[in-house]
Amino acid sequence: MKSFLLLLHEPVDALPDITPDDMQRIIERYNAWSNDLAEKGRLEGGSKLVDGEGRVLVANDDDLMVTDGPYAEAKEVIGGIFRILADDYDDAIALSRTCPHLDFGKIEIREIDPV
Q1: In this predicted model, what pLDDT tens digit does every residue of 22-81 receive, in sequence order?
Q2: Rounded to whole angstroms, how far apart are CA atoms 3 and 113?
Q3: What are the CA-CA distances from residue 108 to residues 6, 10, 25, 92, 93 (Å)?
Q4: Per residue, what are the HEC states of the chain?
């Protein structure tokens, strides 16, 4: 099997008026989905990223420019990642089809180079 990275993209204002109870139900759905993958031996890991924090690095000749990111004017952020095992892209798509994130955003699937 091959390793794939699921990048969970979401609009910056994906859930503006969510209640704590609604958020708990969403978290429970993510947990159930990832636990199902883990039970099948298809989950290598995953994490939610901290909202509104990060750094962007750009090489500038012999210097390194560091800026805060993601930017507030961005329309979309990566809110989390999962690393899964799949036979190929079609298999990765099939495993991702029931991910609750599709209710709020989109999922980018990238094969991880085994080198």
Answers
A1: 989 999 999 999 999 999 999 999 998 887 778 888 898 889 998 887 665 667 788 899
A2: 8
A3: 6, 11, 24, 11, 10
A4: CEEEEEEEEEECCCCCCCCHHHHHHHHHHHHHHHHHHHHCCCEEEEEECCCCCCEEEEEECCEEEEEECCCCCCCEEEEEEEEEEECCHHHHHHHHCCCHHHHCCEEEEEECCCC
Tokens 């994906």: give the residue: 14
Structure tokens at 45: 């890991």
What is this structure's pTM? 0.85
